DNA sequence: TTAGAACTGTCAGTGCCTGACGCTACATTC
DNA sequence: GAATGTAGCGTCAGGCACTGACAGTTCTAA
């Protein structure tokens, strides 16, 4: 009964999140996920590259938003301000996905294998940001460093946002970048 | 013939590096490593938690050096200068291990699974640096952010050092931190 | 000599992931 | 309306990473 294809993918994601929250990531075989979704284990691997990959589906969208914001920054904008603006531009995406992201974040934090993958995904975003900066004539090595640093700053901001929602994500981002500026001023 | 234990561990590391360089990481089963080292696959897993873990053995030493440098920084030293000094203190460690690190670095760069693990190891170092800063009364959230940023800066420096050894690692570190300071000054 | 610790081998087993093959539903074309 | 193509899926077989349990060996210390 080969139905829609997209439906099976959705069922698999739902089943996986349920089982992971019930029993933990390492304690749920892919076979169990597939069974709850009504498909075969083999079908699971036709929709997802591997067991960890399910958690990181929206990454492509986030990357596009960030890269576009960098690309469209006014000419003459310095790298770090451009990066900060890009993260501000991605805030709606975080806010929209928050109810879905939050339980997943706890699961990732509790599962080393997922933390590794999350870091790898972040590295891919950094790579995309680096290239977007290079397209703006930023020196490649400087671009790489600053993309990394800005990504960390944004990650710190979203982390604080999870713990303290009394401030908006915009405010957390600005706070974090301000701390970065003040701390860097103490160099040399 | 159960000899020393430490000898087997060393043989396993040598055999693994050879086979990985010959055939690639993904194309060399643990069984082959064990066979070349003259032991069983099971023994491999008694010496290393998993196949990827062999590459990251000196990490403990590096962590200790960094943490000690942070701890022993003169009172009143600001966080980023303290972190920069810590990385300078770890330079001899990098220089000593360079001939061993360099072929490994290319292998890591060519193997996604190893990149993930390398990022995870970096995250552990960042965590240790964060705690060392907190012990110096740095605000926990600021400590976390700056440890991350400093680690990225040092990583960028070592990466440049691999590509361009005409400058010392000390100089690359200073250059990278200077770029960070200049870029951050453009914020706000 | 004996007791114990450290190291290893052997065996069985789980789980992730892949390749190859064939089937079925659906869309397209003539 | 029949032929063709395509996309999604099931089934089977198999490789490889990793683990638990048990037994045998060497070396050391009492």
TrEMBL record, chains A, B:
It holds the Pfam family TetR_C_14. It comes from the Bacteria. PROSITE patterns: HTH_TETR_2. Residues 29-48 bind DNA. Residues 6-66 form the HTH tetR-type domain. Keywords: DNA-binding, Transcription, Transcription regulation. InterPro entries: Homeodomain-like_sf, HTH-type_TetR-like_transc_reg, HTH_TetR, MftR_C. The keyword Transcription applies. This is TetR/AcrR family transcriptional regulator.
């Amino acid at each position: 009964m080969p139905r829609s294809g997209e439906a099976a993918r959705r069922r698999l994601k739902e089943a996986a999140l349920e089982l992971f929250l019930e029993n933990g990531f390492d304690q749920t075989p892919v076979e169990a996920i597939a069974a709850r979704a009504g498909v075969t284990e083999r079908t699971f691997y036709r929709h997802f590259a591997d067991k960890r990959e399910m958690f990181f589906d929206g990454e492509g969208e986030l990357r596009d938003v960030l890269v576009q914001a960098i690309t469209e920054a006014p000419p003459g904008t310095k790298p770090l301000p451009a990066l900060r603006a890009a993260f501000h531009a991605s805030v709606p995406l975080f806010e929209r996905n928050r109810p879905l992201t939050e339980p997943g974040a706890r699961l990732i934090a509790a599962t080393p294998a997922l933390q590794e993958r999350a870091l790898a995904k972040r590295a891919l975003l950094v790579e995309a940001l680096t290239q977007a900066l290079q397209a703006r004539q930023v020196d490649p090595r400087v671009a790489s460093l600053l993309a990394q640093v800005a990504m960390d700053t944004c990650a710190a901001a979203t982390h604080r946002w999870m713990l303290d929602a009394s401030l908006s994500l915009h405010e957390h981002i600005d706070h974090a970048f301000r701390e970065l500026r003040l701390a860097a001023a103490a160099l040399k």
